[in-house]
Specification:
It is built from 4 helices and no strands. By secondary structure, it is mostly helical. The protein has a domain of 115 residues.
Length: 170
């Protein structure tokens, strides 16, 4: 009886141990699946991360290249700013020259106008003196025609030079 009881208990305990072992296996498998779950996609994640890393490296390379281009452009801009400063100074100098030339031009225009006025006065004076000379020559001729020694004065009046007329009269 005891053997049967022990055999029955043994079978019962074996069945229980098998069920427990099976449950433990299932539990271990589930826990293993649960534990492995984050790592199942590890290879895909690694590929994705490599791709993202390549993209980021490409962006960094582009940005570094753009930074170099901007630095070159900044250097060119500095050079151009210096040239602009020089050109602005030259422009100011040229403006000052233009202003000086304008002042000189105004002065020369005034002098020219004054000289023109002086020349016109001189021309008028010359005309007046010429008319006076002609009148005097005419009077001289008239006097010589009416005077007895007309041949001497007549010859001098033919030359009709005021200087000769004066020397003859003396």
């Amino acid at each position: 009886d005891q053997i049967d009881t022990f055999t029955f208990q043994n079978q019962f305990l074996k069945a229980k141990a098998d069920r427990f072992e099976e449950a433990l296996k299932k539990n271990n498998e589930e826990q293993l699946k649960i534990a492995q779950a984050p790592y199942l996609h590890l290879e895909e994640d690694l590929k994705s991360l490599k791709h993202v890393l390549e993209l980021k490296n490409h962006q960094i390379h582009k940005q570094e290249k753009k930074i170099m281009e901007l630095e070159i452009q900044a250097e060119k801009n500095l050079i151009l700013e210096e040239k602009i400063t020089v050109l602005q100074q030259q422009n100011e100098e040229l403006r000052a020259r233009i202003e000086q030339n304008a002042v000189i031009t105004r002065q020369l225009s005034e002098e020219n106008a004054n000289l023109q006025e002086y020349i016109e006065k001189e021309v008028e004076e010359k005309k007046r003196l010429s008319r006076t000379n002609e009148e005097l020559l005419w009077k001289l001729e008239e006097e010589t025609l009416s005077a007895p020694s007309t041949s001497f004065y007549h010859c001098s009046s033919v030359n009709s030079s005021p200087a000769k007329a004066r020397t003859v009269r003396r």
